[in-house]
Amino acid sequence: MLSRTDKNEILKQLPDLHEEAMEKIDCLACANCCKNYSPRFKTPDIKRISRLLKMKESVFIDTYLNLDQDGDYVVKSKPCPFLGADNYCSIYEDRPSDCRRFPYTDEDVIVKRQKLTLKNSTFCPIVYYVLEHLVENSVKK
Length: 141
Hints:
Order of helices and strands: HHHHHEEHHHH
Number of strands: 2
Strand content: under 5%
Strand order of the largest sheet: 1-2
């Protein structure tokens, strides 16, 4: 679907669709991203979070992270060890950049990394909402 549509047209629609989805869907009621997905923990994330937790970086990595098949650090367990029972993140202000950016529905990631977008749409209602409306809008034209 996305590959057959003008990418610039999609990018023009994203800000409004993203805002609309964020208003309609309560992330705290869902938290599927924190339950099913691990962000990449990049070096700045590891430094910042280990400092917050007053841990050496190596201890933080040994305690919480594994290397995935792509060579990225990801959480060892699901749900995320920083997700509380109330679906709030205990490190929210210092969370990894991937978490800050998720669900990427206001970025060109949606067209540049279509496989990731489709995967995310299977568990994130916001991604699903945005994709569904992109399809509806492209059919109307």
